[in-house]
Amino acid sequence: METENKQLMGKILSHDDKMQQSEGPSVVTTLSIQVEAPEPHQGGDGKAS
Question: Is 7 exposed, middle or buried (0-12, 13-18, 19+ CB in 10 A)?
């Protein structure tokens, strides 16, 4: 599962880097937080804000 996430992150990073470099890191950071914090009962309540 971790390997899959890393591959996905790499794809997104490469794609965003080519499309819009300014917003690339922001998207990746948001994705990282969601992937690294799999807590549905806490993830989308106060942490998201």
Answer: exposed
Contact 11, 19 (CB under 8 A): no
Count helices and strands (H / E) in the chain: 3, 0
Which pairs count as long-range contacts for 26-30, CB under 8 Å and 24+ apart, including other chains?
Answer: none
Alpha-carbon span 42 to 35, nearest angstrom: 13
pLDDT in tens, 7-33: 776 776 665 555 555 555 566 666 666
Task: Pull the structure tokens for residue 20.
Answer: 């819009």
